[in-house]
Each structure stands twice: as C-alpha cells, then as structure tokens.
Amino acid sequence: MLFNSFGYLLFLPTVVLLYWISPQRLRALLLLLASYVFYMTWKPVYGLLIFGLTLFNYLFGLAVNRSERYRKLWLAVAVAANLLTLGVFKYAYFALDVANQLLAPWSRSLPAIPLQIILPLGISFFVFEFIHYVADVYKGDKPVRSFVDFALFASFFPTQIAGPIKRYQLFIPQLAVAQKFSLKYLDEGVSLILFGLFKKVLFADNLAVVVQSAFQHPELLSGLDLWLAVYAFAFQIYFDFSGYTDIARGSAHLLGYKVPPNFNLPYLAGSISDFWHRWHMSLSTWLRDYLFIPLGGSRFSRLLTYRNLFLTMLLGGLWHGAAMHFAIWGAYQGALLVLHKEFQRLTQSWQWLTQARNTRLFHCLSVALTFHAVCIGWVFFRAETAESALEIIRKLLFLVPGPADLPAWSLSLPSTQDPVIFPLLPLVLLVLFSGQLVAERLSRAGESIKFPPAFKAAYVAALISLLVLFAPDTSPRFIYFQF
Amino acid sequence: MAFLNQPTTSSNSARTSLWKELKSSYVLGGILLFLSVNLLLLVLQPLSKVDPESLPSAHTWVWWATREYLQEQHRPAVVLLGSSLLMHPVSRTDADMLGEDLDYVHHHRSLYMESLLAKRLEIREGSCFNFALPGGMMSDDYIVARALFGGQRKPKLIVLGLSLRDFIDNGVHCAGATPAFRYLKRFTSVDDLMPLAMPELWQRFDYAVGKAFYLWGKKLEMQVALSEKVKQRLAPLMARFCSPSQIDKLDPARNMPSNLRAEVEEGMFIVKAHQPYSWEDNSREYRKRYRTGNDKQFAIQAEFLEKLMALCHAQDIRVLIVNMPLTQTNLALMPAGSYRHYLCVLDQASRRWHSRFVDLSMDSRFQRADFYDTAHMNSSGGQKLIEAIVGQIAGSQRLTASLASPPSVRSQLASQGHRSL
Question: Which of A476, B74, B117, B230 counts the highest number of beta carbons within 10 A?
Fold first, then answer.
C-alpha cells in the first residue's frame, strides 16, 4: 500500500480509530495485524518472509542473550542469515551479472537463475533493523521478551517500507506506556502527513518530469541546463524521501509513537561529513554503528580509517540498489569523505584557515561547495548508465558545448513549453533554496517562535487546498521504496 | 446536595477541557477553514467554464477521435460507432481504396462509404466519420453520442456496429472505467449515470468528493488556467534569456506525468495498403473476454443501448443497428445462451425505437477469408460490410431521406407517420 494512495487514506484513519478505542493490552496486537495487512496488500506471500525473519531473529536474540559459550556463533549465524536473505532477494541478479562479466574473457557464463525473484518491499530496512537488534543484544542490551512487541518493532507499518531504520531500545519502551488519546497527536501527526504529501506531490513529482527528460536526453541540453536538472534532482530525491519520512513519522504520531527524524536540512551542510550527519540519518548512524565501527572505525592507522570509511560508503551505496551506478555513487561519497578528512588533517596547523572557518563567508562557500559535490554524486545515482553519467558530468564541467553548437552556458531547458514546471524551474529552485534558509532560521529559533493557532490553522488549510488542487490522479511511487 | 453537585462539576470541567482542547487544535481549525473556503467557492462558482479540450489528457484512442471530430468543418452525415470490429475493416478498406498507408489516429473517415453513398444515393453532403474505438463498449457509444453529438455536430445517421463483446467483456471492470467514459465525462454531466457507470462505492465516493469539494472537482480547470497564465507571463522572459528548447522537439508525451502518458501516438498503428493476407488466432483473448456471461454488465450495457436510442430519438438522429459478422470460431467461444439474449436485446431495442436492425452474422457473403482473426475483418470484409450497410440505407426510405434532406423535411415525414424502415 502506498502512502500517497486512496487505500492508505482509508486504512490509516481506520487503524487510528481502532487503536485509540482498544484497551491498552490489545493495542500492540492490533498494530501488528494492521502492519501485516498493510504489507500483504502488495504481495501476500511476502508476509511469510517478514514473519519468518521475525521469528528467526527473535529466537536468535534470546539465544545470543542466554548463551555464554556460543554467543558469537549465534550472532554470526543470525547476521549471516539476514545478509543471505537480503543477498538472495536483492543482489542475486547483480552478482550473476558481475560474475558473467568477469568470466566473459574466458567465454564462460554461469547458468541463469531459474526463478524470477521479486524484491520484497522494505527488505533492506527491516533486515538492517534485525541486524541492529541481534548485534545490540550481543553487546549486552536486553532482548525483547514479548514476541508481539518484537514482531511489531520489525513490521510497524509507518516505517516498514522505507524507514526510518528504528532502534529497538527507543521503540519497544513506547509500547509499554499506557497512552490516552490527545488532540496533540492529531495536530502533530496530521500536519506532518500533510507536509510530507505536500513535498512529495507538489515538488518531488513535478520536478521528476524535468529530471526524467534531462537525464534521458542530456545530448539535447547545455551544461547550464544540466546544472538546473541536477539541482532539480537534488530537490526531487530530498523531497521524495523526506516527504515519505514525514508521512511515516506523522502516521506514527497519530498512534502516539515517536519515530526518529531522518533529515536535518542536508543541503545546508558545511562539509560532506556534515552532510552525512544530516542526510538519511537513520542509515548513516546504522552504517557507522554496524559497519564502520566493526570494520575497525578510526581506532587504527590513518590509512585503515580511510579504508573503513571508503568501504562503508561503497557498501552503503550498494545498499541503495544492486547496480553499478549505486556502487560508483557510494565509492564517490567514500572518496569525498576521505578527501575531507585528509584536508582537515593537512590544514590543522594553518592558523589563518582556522580563523577563516569561523567567518560567515567561509561557511557560505563551504555550503555551496558541499552542495555541488553532492549534486555531482546525484548524477551517478540517477543516471541510467555509467556512460550517460559521464556525459552529463563532462557537460556539467562545461567541457562540451551545448546542442546545435550553442555555448555550454546557453539556457534552453526553461523554454520547454509543457508542462509548466519547465518555465517555472528557475523560480522553483530559487524558492526551494531560500526555503532551506528559512527552515534553518526557524529551526534555530526553535521554541522561541510561537505561531498563533490561527496562523497554524491557516497553514493546515493552505496545505490541504494545495494538495487537493495539485494532486494528480496517480502519483509515482516513492524513490526509496525500491531500496 | 453535595453528592449531586460533584458529578455535574466534574462533567462540566471535562466538557470545558474538551472544548478547550478542541479550540486549541489547529488541525481541526485548518479543516474547518478549508471547508468554509470550499463552501464559499461552491456558492460563488468563480471559475468560468474551461474548454474541455484544453484540459490535460492522456493521448488515448478517444482523445484522438474526439479531437478530429471537433475539427470537422461540417455536420457529418454518418457516424460509425462501435469497437475495433468496426474500426479496423473500415480503415483497411480505405487504405486499399486509396492505395496508401493510413495512420489510425488520424484517419477517422470512411471514404469508401462516402463514395458509395454518392454513387448509389447521390448523397454528397457531409462526411462518414468513423468513431469506432478499440475496446469500445456499448456505454462508450452512448457517452460519445451524449458528449459530442449536439448542435452543429449532430450527425444525421448513426451506424451502431455491435457484437456481444460490447456488452459482456470480462476485461472491463465497469462502464465508468473505460478510457472513453473517463475522458468524455469532462464534456457532459454524468450525474445521472453514476449508478450504472460506477457501481463501486469508492468510485462514487471519488465522484461525490469532486462534486462536493470545489477545489477537487475543478482541479484540472484550475491547473490549466494557472499554467496558461504563468506561461504567458514568463514567455517574454524566456524569449529574452533562453534559446528554443530541443526537448520540445521530442514526443510531447515524454514530458507527461505517468497518469497522462499516451495510450497511442502518431505512427504507432499504421494501416498498410494492400496488406497480404495472414491469419492470427486470437481465440485465447476472446476466451478471456467471454469468460462468463457477465449478466450484471450485460444488463447495464443493455440499459446504455436503451439510453442511446432514446437520446437519438430525442435529437432526431436515425440509427442503424448492425450485428457485426464474426467467425464460427468466435461464436463458439461465447457463453451459452448469451448470444441469443444479446440478439433479442438488439431486436427489441430497434423495434421499440423504430430504427433498423440488420444481423450480418448470418450473412453468407462474409467468409473466413474476410477475417484476419476470429473477430476482425480485413479490407475485403470491410468492403462487404460497408456495401451491406449502404445497401440497408438504400433500402430504407426513412434512412435515405434523413441523409438526403434537411431536417424540416424529415420532421414533415415524421409528422405524417412515415414508418418505413
């Protein structure tokens, strides 16, 4: 079931109503049933997969906790089984392709996979939650005793398909709190959902039209046009995913649960390292805790630290999808992080730079540089082939002239007639950039700014009106559903 | 008395706190504000009627046909309504007659019928427009007539080429779900058709929301109006700072959101002149279409036939109902009893509304060699079909008169109780 579907519009209020009128002891069970209904509307048989994995990890969590002698073995088996499941469903075809490419010089190939494997929705997210669980139990945290609670942690419908990747230590205690319905939940939940839908339907879906044309036909565009298209994709993916996260968090709020935020104005990051503290935070902290640190983190030599950083980002890239361009994107992010660390190390002793770092101008330049470095990464993420990505990057660097021998800085994309998002693109991007700055101001001000209820009501009414007015008959799927 | 006062005080305070909470809820406030604005818009109706053609739409078969129909300079003499069973042979016949390839999305005439009418009946006024649509149901024929056959665009005669599939196709969820119905409802109100066209609760809910919420119901109009205004304002800026877009030269559907992407585009379906004979077995497809007798759907579609006949009667448009020829293979796939029932319905409707009905399925002129699959005829079949139709028109004084004479003469004939079919 999609968050931006008619089905969810009926499903969510029904679950919320049933939840609040049910006695406390039945609420977790009710949410568990609802979560399985939510998941199984897509492919019922995959309900068995999530149930099987839940049971397996529940039992192994208990085993890891109880056993003194075989703790490490149980942990290894549990992690391996989770990764194997992910590998079979997500990476089997990719692995076969890569192997066949490697074997090609010897005119050999591996046999094709006899069955058609369909990627279960959300598998990358719930498998990561399972690994986090068994790993933390291994480190000494208490396992979850109630199977229903554990199953709900794994299948909680607001976060089931595309996260945020939850931590059980934060989620499970919320199940024990006997909550009473308050309109506060409605206010916070509904406004988050509306804002999430607004981001998805109004911005992500409209920008997607520009991005689709530009990335399919880079040969028809100049370097400057492609910069606009890449900015458009940067905001498309941000609004698509953060919109999803807002809807997930809002849906959880309606049920009285708190789910961690996933984004914190990532395009205002002052460095690539800062970017990863603001972008898909639940994934980056997971990668840090369960990949970077186990690989050795920064405890050893500088080179080993860089290797760990690079490997973590490379695997993080592959987590997004079984394709070479995701691997390249991950490697690019890893390389940027290594470069940033090295730059910091080399310039540590430069007094003037340390002083300059504190100036507003330096901060602005850092933000602009980081944003553009991230944008170049998005080209690998979005381009359909590596060749196409390279062609786009050559044009972005103004190394190739525009179409029909126009200069590389000529502009033609906004003069596209239909739909109206093309001519509006420069203005929309300007509004979105400024919106980030306004959001930062508001977030800095925090609780000190109190908006009157009438203002907030007008804001909600405006969001509903805009959604009603601009909602297409069908909205494309969220990008992160495919991961 | 204290024990009596106690609960009252507590319930009062509970009520006060609930009221306070309700008052402080900005989401409820926002919803109320939205509803008030909506009510105001419903009363004021600030948006004038927008030309339905200018609203964004996927390029479907019906979109192309409607576009061409609305561009017709003169009132058409004959409009052919039906499914691909009628569309294909008519276009194939024309391609052979002209000796040139034709694009299905642009060729909406029956030039062969026009030439026969001119030759045999000396009827040279008005075109023969082929509005048959692939997958078209009886309900689609009705909505086409209701939406488009008014005023100057009213044809003199409708030839309704039907088959059992148009009444029971198991692949069609409901009358309101076809591309033709979804597209043409923007040209006409379909309130009265809801129980027939949209039997599902959610469909009616969506329709009701569209009616009750001004912004939802008018969203397409508003999007178009706003988009046009913005484009007009930005045009001088674009001309000054931008070179012409190369993307514009691509297929325009490429830039469409997925819900507006084309079903059919120019060049996708070309009918070739003098195509060599080949046979395709489409029994499997028709086995699915005829999976069940689909009684509920049949009854609904029969009601649409009734509505079409009533509409044509009211508009003074003559109707010729043609039961399309089919191969024995196709007839054998039909659910038991359905075909007889269907023929009865056509016969009764034609009698009730004093129109002409011809059953070509029993006509020995149509041989297996006239078909390229179990249901669709090739150009030789098309030629025979058009000749049979023109023969029926020639054999009916009433039909001939409707094509030949101005409406006043026809009214005169009608007032004289002229019932010759």
Answer: B117
